[in-house]
Amino acid sequence: MQPTDKVRRFYDAMPCERPGRITLSTPWLERCAAPGPPPIRAGARALVAGCGTGSEAMDLRRLGMEVVGIDISARSIERARALSDEVTWIHGDLQHLDQHDALGPFDLVLCHAVADYVPDSAALLRGMADTLTPHGLILLSTNTPHHPRQRLLDAWRALGGENEWHSTDEERARLDGLGDVLGPHSGIGNLRTMTDDIVRMDLFPPLAHHRSAEQWCALAADVGLHLRGDRHIRDLVLAHPDPSVFGGLPLTTISTVAQALVAPPSSMLLFAREPAPVLALSGESQLVTTASVPVGAIPPAEGPWDESRSLHMVDSGVTRELRLTTLGLEMLRLCDGRHTLGDLGERLKVDWRQVEGELIRMLYADLLHPVGALTP
Ligand SMILES: C[S@@+](CC[C@H](N)C(=O)[O-])C[C@H]1O[C@@H](n2cnc3c(N)ncnc32)[C@H](O)[C@@H]1O
Hints:
It contains 15 helices and 10 strands. It is α/β, with parallel strands linked by helices. It has 3 domains: about 210 residues, 3-Layer(aba) Sandwich (Rossmann fold), CATH 3.40.50.150; about 55 residues, no CATH class; about 100 residues, Outer Surface Protein A, domain 3. The strands form 2 sheets. A 7-stranded mixed beta sheet has the order 3-2-1-4-5-7-6, sandwiched between helices. Helix 5 crosses helix 9. It is globular, with a radius of gyration of 21 Å. The structure holds S-adenosylmethionine. S-adenosylmethionine binds next to helix 1 and strand 2.
């Protein structure tokens, strides 16, 4: 079976439904767009490339934009169509966007959590570039090879497994054993408590590759695109609109995020057709301090967690050294998949139900301790 058919079959069986995902930072996009018109504004045209069941396209439509959503999964498009007839929904393959070029041009192409599934990255990037207006922007979010899932896959393949989940008893036993070996700090979670559906959806989706931000930039340059802005994502898990959700999150999720602070698992890259300076961006997340880290500056998340681990982040031109705090370490030690934030709240004598987002903010603010500016 061709890789693309695998993806189609997977998303037909399990349409991707993520209502309310926060994927866009309008001020950031507007800064990156200058001096052109902001790509997010009433009347501007957007293509949602890999729209799933339509929530991102609907968000943009609510902002008054003209929106086209395209997805390879017929079932997802069927679900999206039921949401609104004010968006143009297309069942199609992003590797053949030229078959639909009459729909463009677009001021914004949003390709979020999709590119890693598309085997022919060059065709994907070329197709999106060709649909852009002269000032248009492509927002591409991808997982990097630092994504915790990559470590699981490497270990799984070393055991002779495939990047697909058939859920036989033997496979399940092997996965659970692997989880025990990888241990609580793997950033993947407690595999024994995961249902087969979660394993299939979260750990073994039919991804074609995990590329680094540099690799995406090189591929984009080959099709005449210029990097306009980059943001390394550490807060996707946290950017949930409902703060009460955090209370139930297992601490393994926190461990994932803590590791993400050392090696970002996802990147958001903005490309344009016109060359322009890449903007230095910082501190937009509500919950975690983010900084613009030059690609490649972050060491891989290997080795033991202790207070000697440090991370260099460049923020507004200053390189800062950050070290794990005692509380950060305590949190990592608690990350064995059985504890929840509620447990941690108990240890800290805080009732997370009352403080909700505040507790999370406090925990994350304290997870890393800035040691000082290194170089101007
Ligand atoms: C993880 S979901 C993301 C959906 C949505 N962008 C979001 O973030 O909620 C990945 C989506 O990409 C779609 N997809 C994967 N490969 C594709 C391709 N070659 N052409 C069009 N859509 C594709 C899948 O069908 C699926 O709906």
